[in-house]
Each structure stands twice: as C-alpha cells, then as structure tokens.
Task: structure prediction
Amino acid sequence: MSLRSPLSKVLGLGSAKDGTAHWWSQRVTAAALVPLTLWFVFSILGLPAWDYDTLSTWASVPISGFLSVLLIAVAAYHSYLGTTVIVEDYVSGAGKVVWLILLRFAYVLCAGAGIFAILRMSFGFPHP
Amino acid sequence: MPKVARPTSPHWTVYRWQLGSSLSILHRATGALLAVGLIVLAFWWTALASGPAAFSGAARVLGSPLGLLLLFGVSFSFWYHALNGVRHLFWDAGRGFEKAERHGSAWAAVAGAVLLTAGLWVLIWRHLT
Result:
C-alpha cells in the first residue's frame, strides 16, 4: 500500500528508486579497477623500451587489447560516477543539468575514442 | 540566490582542519585529477593508433616539463586514490572504524602513495635515460 498522496505522485516527488545503484556501481567498479590498473602499470613498466615499435607490438597482443578495453570502459564509468557527484555537489540551478549532460558526452567521447584506438591496434593496424 | 536570506548551518569554514577531512578532500581532488588522466590515456591510445609520426608528437607533449608534471600528479593521484579507496572499501564492509585503525590506515595510505609514486618514477627515469 502506498502512503503517498496523489499530488506527490503527480509532482514526481519522493524516491527516484535508484538510490543504492550509484553507490554500489562505484564500489564494484573500484574493486575491478585495482587489478586492471595494476596490470596496465606493470605491463608498461615491464617493456624493454617505450618506442613506437615496442608499444605497438605490445598493443597488438590480444590480452593487451582485451584488458585495455576493460580498463578504459570501467575507469570511464567509475570516473563518470565520481565527477557526477562533484558536479551535483558544487553546481546548482539550471547549469547543473547542462554540466551533467556535457559530462556524459565527454565520457562517451573519451572512452569511445580510447576503445576505438585499442581495437584498431588489435585488429591489424598497422600492418607490419 | 534564495528569496529569503535564511540562516545557514555551520559550514566547513568553522571547523578545524583534521586528518580525516583533509584526506577525504584529497580523495576527491585526486579523483578529479584522475579524470584528466583518463583523457591522457585516451589521447595516448589514439596517438599510438594514428601511426609513428602522431605517436612521437604525443610522446614529445607528454615528455615535456609540463607533460611530465601532469603525469607526476596523475601518478600520485592514482596511488593515493587507490590506497585510500581500499580504506573506503574496508569501511563499507564495516571494518577499520576505531580511532587507531583510522589514523593508522590514513598515514599508511599517504606514506604508501608517496613511496609508490617515488618508486614508479625511479623506474620511469631508468626507462627514459
């Protein structure tokens, strides 16, 4: 049984029904980022040199591409969740919605560009 | 601005700086810098996928004094945010709330971040020279 008045229903007041989703997503992505980031750091540090040939060869190995896609996707989602809270805390009024939308666009752009570049290295570019 | 100037609750300016609040602010600040680091990562991958000429250009930008300063800030942010993030995960599991535990883990996160950043840059320096 709902105790909410018809007026509050019409005005859309009350819980947004996703109160814990943001919190949980932030924690789960945080846990996933621990192995993914450590893998990336030590993988790059383990290379004999950081010239184009060494790095592009490393990038074309399947496991490098696969884990790098996961890293960028999960990091972008985790970062999006975090910076969204920063905007919500410090921006008020009409500008808030604009900032939140711009933020989403920026993250999709950033993650999309990064993942596209990784896939390009994985699937046969450049041809040696 | 609100239509009526109501009294506001005590704001952060009235409180003394403390370890817990300082590190909490640092967690957010390093998180914001890591968002910039994500852009750098996407930029680096895009340059790599664009061929040798684009990659050497990007390497020059990231290897410039300003680029290295940014990477240094991002690397410290990474270690601190990761270590302090693990503190948060322990708290979320209901552990580590005693005063000694909080202060011990706080200093461990700061010291660990400083040491790991220093160690990382020793290895980077060996690579670059």
Observations:
- The longest helix of chain A spans residues 62-90.
- Chain A touches chain B through 33 residues (CB under 8 Å).
